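Ops channel
N.P.: pipeline sanity check, posting one input/output pair.
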């Protein structure tokens, strides 16, 4: 997988930080503070790509039924 893959379901906190233009440390602080959507799997902290894109306004909200 490439360093940053927009089609992956999740990305690392580091990659989310790169996408946001912030440092690795700032990205982990944002994740800890709840400013970044995260999924915790054991010791791994992953950012759901779709939720991050939605948060940034890159994808519109899905229609609600």
């Amino acid at each position: 997988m490439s360093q940053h893959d927009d089609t992956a379901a999740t990305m690392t906190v580091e990659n989310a930080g790169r996408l946001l233009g912030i440092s690795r440390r700032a990205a982990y602080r944002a994740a800890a503070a709840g400013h970044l959507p995260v999924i915790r799997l054991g010791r791994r902290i992953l950012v759901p790509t779709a939720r991050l894109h939605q948060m940034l306004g890159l994808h519109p909200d899905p229609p609600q039924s």
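N.P.: looks fine end to end. Residues 10-55 form one domain.
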